[in-house]
Amino acid sequence: MRIGALLIAIMLCAMPATAAEWQPLFNGKDLSGWHEVLGGKWSVQNGEIVGETGDGRYGWLVTDKEYRDFILELKFRTEAPGNSGVQFRSHVVMEGEDRDTPRMKGYQAEVSPKRGDDTGGVWGEAMGRGWLAQPPPELADVLREGEWNNYRITAVDDHITTELNGVKMVEFDDGQNVLGIIALQVHSGIIPVRVRWKDIRIQDLGYGPGWKALFNREDFTGWKIHGDEKWSVEDGMIVGESGAGGYGYLATEKTYRDFQVRVKFKCDAEGNSGLFFHSTLNGTDIRGIQAEIDPTPRNLNAGLYESGGRQWLAQPNEDARTLMRFGDWNELWVTCKGNRIVTHLNGFQAVDYTDPDPQFTDGVIALQLHSGGGAKVRWKDLFIREVTE
Description:
The protein has helices spanning about 5-15, 320; strands at about 20-25, 35-40, 40-45, 50, 60-65, 70-80, 85-95, 100-110, 120-125, 130-135, 150-155, 160-165, 165-175, 180-185, 195-205, 210-215, 225, 230-235, 235-240, 250, 260-265, 275-280, 285-295, 305, 310-315, 330-335, 340-345, 350-355, 365-370, 375-385. With about 400 residues, the protein is mainly beta. About 40% of the residues are buried.
């Protein structure tokens, strides 16, 4: 069974009928909780958000908050033939030579008034993947052009469903991206775009059931320090800092085999670090697999390196490498199931690696300070969910 399919089954069985309350994403008065990115003109009229072309560039109205698992509902009405859409689990990344050009990456649920059979489909925006799922041609007339339409987008783990006016348009599994913003889009080009949006609400399902804290935010109960480097707890965070300049590890006492782990980290210096798993330690001699934390221009964050074995197993893809937030908080995910390892950085898949000859399949989880000094890393929100069949 696939990792995603297994976790969906676990979550749906454990999820109560009213898993979360509906929360409005738009207050009907102003754009509080949203911000504009790039082009487009955004306003509030008669309790509706109006998005239209301004200078011919792409434009997005983006939520301030990120979401992982959710049910999103909204109504839209098109007033011009230009293309639009709803971004979800998406990211605004800075590209260009000086990293000063914003670009959107993630999923887009299509709104296409002149191609009704596309509306409800999901496009891999700036992911180099094109259509991820398109509705069958017989559903082309589900879109009510020039009238209000009801859109519903459901994302639970790697399972995505869209519904338009009560009709299921697409349903598919895709684990590229598990966390990100929601945004309304107006397309670039000379064809005018004008879309109205209202009644925007969400059930925020969070991370789903089964997660347990790895760190109690107070002390190192359940953990063991290896080496002479400095580890402390400050304001509910783990702080690791190079002292003697050798290797240092903070490792769990418990071992884990198949699991999902998520942590947030912030690098206060350029020294190398990492999140180890399936590992064993003898002093500071470690054997196992590391999800890289690399706050240098090399930027190999979330890549997989095997210590005491084959060294680099998989380096992060180029898309994921645009998402590292230097000097700020980042979220790292590692999913292990059998011989398959998947990593996500800030919600975007960095590595999907199936090991043809696994050397390490069980062991502790450990935070690392690399030798050589110059490392200071903060860690918070450490959680794990064990995966069993």
